[in-house]
Specification:
- Helix content is about 35%, strand content about 25%.
- It is built from 14 helices and 20 strands.
- It has helices at about 10-25, 40-45, 65-75, 90-95, 105-115, 115-125, 140-150, 175-190, 250-265, 300-305, 310-320, 395-410, 420-425, 430-435; strands at about 5, 25-35, 45-50, 75-80, 100, 155-160, 170, 195-200, 205-215, 220-235, 235-240, 270-280, 285-290, 335-340, 355, 355-360, 365-370, 375-380, 385-395, 410-415.
- It has an eight-stranded antiparallel beta sheet with strand order 13-12-9-10-11-14-19-17. Strands 3-2-1-4-5 form a five-stranded parallel beta sheet, with helices on both faces. A three-stranded antiparallel beta sheet has the order 7-6-8, covered by helices on one side.
- Helix 7 crosses helix 8 and helix 12 (about 395-410) packs antiparallel against helix 13 (about 420-425).
- It starts with a strand and ends in a 14-residue tail after the last helix.
- The structure holds adenosine-5'-diphosphate (ADP).
- Adenosine-5'-diphosphate binds near residues 131 and 203.
Length: about 450
């Protein structure tokens, strides 16, 4: 096994990786920006290296600084987490060239799935169901109009390099298409440095359901069931649960699981990954994208399957065989995660500042993945996620009750958080019935 791993990330996911390494007797190196000098991942790692100023472009995204940190600490592998460089084919390739193990898939798989136009083309080739849409980049207004007329409005303009719900525009009529195309291209160029966009049929009522997979370097793969991530605001996930209530039965789980494995095989995928699908009211599922990294919401799958996904990532990157087979994966009980962001619960505006009082909930079936503590400063430079509150219980209703009491127990003072909003979701009638679509939260806010 690796002797020493460098964690090229911050916050709760850096902590998550340190925890896995400690349990595997692997030494850890934390990297940090000057804004994170007092961060808990820095304190808990065996060694730490400052890699630059608060602006992530000059620290957590600075490949040269990270590789220098590897060199001075003699780390053998890099754990990328999510965000920052986790899905960068260039970073994975540079690591490979320098003889450092990138704990994730091969650069080729990152490149193929990171380009959503290319990914659609590959999925089409292996008969994974797709929503009607572009076969290539849509560049000009005339092409967009023709395509939109063929597939029928509403359509959605999406960025080829898209992520985090950014660069998407829903279009209901030809009049709105021109500006939507231009806006999506501009936003995509600005956010991702890649202006290319494509068009897809907009699926009005749908659930976002994703399948977790694990794959070794020799093509052995398993799926670990689904996560329902339909509770979103502005196309960003807020609350996730597994199994998916009201839609996925064992037959659909196996069908989607098989489709996810076919998708992964098509790009020679290795390590942990997630295949995302949109599922319509008639329970038809369509490939949406593949996330080639650990997901924020991986913890709920760990709770229902008992598989440590981060440890698995490290073992698989080291070159171990997958020890799980499909029959050994049994889902147990119900797990749910609330993403506690430091945001105003009415306007969702991010709130940076110092946490003046902090007490995390606990008790049976409660897990808190967080890097926060009393006097921790939520920095305006990074994602304002304070904690992932995860619960596990025998059934969905018990999980909801457990989540409710855990949210009520949580004390975070000094910054506003989404705790009151999560409590509202847990009381929502449609949510309680398990009968909802991705628009469920739209009624709670106007902008
Ligand atoms: P990102 O990589 O930016 O997260 P995704 O492709 O995963 O983008 O889409 C994010 C969310 O946007 C999905 O969960 C879904 O709710 C919505 N979405 C994406 N494509 C469509 C579509 N064709 N029709 C309706 N909603 C969509």
């Amino acid at each position: 096994m690796f002797q020493k791993v460098l964690i090229a990330n911050r916050g709760e996911i850096a902590l998550r990786a340190i925890r896995a390494c400690k349990e595997m007797d692997i030494k850890t190196v934390a990297v940090y920006s000057t804004a994170d000098a007092n961060a808990i991942h820095v304190k808990l790692a065996d060694e730490s290296v400052c890699i630059g100023p608060p602006d992530a472009r000059h620290s957590y995204l600075n490949i040269a600084a990270i590789l220098s940190a590897v060199e001075i600490t003699d780390a053998e592998a890099i754990y990328p987490g999510y965000g920052f460089l986790a899905e960068s084919p260039n970073f994975a390739e540079v690591c490979e060239e320098c003889g450092i193990k990138f704990i994730g898939p091969k650069p080729e798989a990152l490149a193929l799935m990171g380009d959503k136009i290319k990914a659609r083309e590959i999925m089409r080739g292996v008969n994974i169901p797709l929503l009607p849409g572009s076969e290539k980049e849509v560049e000009k207004e005339t092409e967009a109009r023709k395509l939109a007329a063929d597939i029928g409005y509403p359509v959605i303009v999406k960025a080829a390099a898209g992520g985090g719900g950014k660069g998407m525009k829903v279009v209901h009529s030809p009049v709105a298409l021109t500006s939507a195309l231009l806006m999506a291209q501009t936003e995509a160029a600005h956010t991702f440095g890649d202006h290319r966009v494509y068009l897809e049929k907009y699926l009005d009522k749908h659930r976002h359901i994703e399948i977790q997979i694990l794959a070794d370097n020799w093509g052995n793969m398993v799926h670990l069931g689904e996560r329902d991530c339909s509770i979103q605001r502005r196309h960003q996930k807020l609350l996730e649960e597994s199994p998916c209530p009201g839609v996925v039965d064992e037959a659909l789980r196996q069908d989607m699981g098989q489709a996810a494995l076919t998708a992964a095989k098509a790009v020679n995928y290795s390590n942990a990954g997630t295949v995302e699908f949109l599922v319509d009211a008639k329970r038809n599922f369509y490939f949406s994208e593949m996330n080639t990294r650990i997901q924020v919401e991986h913890g709920i799958t760990e709770m229902t399957t008992g598989v440590d996904l981060v440890k698995s990532q490290i073992e698989l990157a080291f070159g171990q065989n997958l020890t799980l087979d499909q029959d050994s994966i049994q889902l147990r009980g119900h797990a749910m995660e609330c993403r506690i962001y430091a945001e105003d619960p009415e306007t969702f505006a991010p709130c940076s500042g110092v946490i003046t009082a902090y007490h995390a909930p606990g008790g049976l079936g409660v897990r808190v993945d967080s890097a926060a503590y009393e006097r921790y400063c939520i920095s305006p430079y990074y994602d304002p996620l304070v904690a992932k509150l995860i619960v596990h219980a025998d059934d969905r209703l018990s999980a909801i009750k457990r989540m409710q009491r855990a949210l009520e127990e949580y004390i975070i003072e000094g910054v506003s958080t989404l705790i009151p909003f999560h409590l509202k979701i847990l009381k929502d009638e449609s949510f309680l019935r398990g009968d909802f679509y991705t628009q469920l939260l739209d009624k709670y806010f106007t902008s």
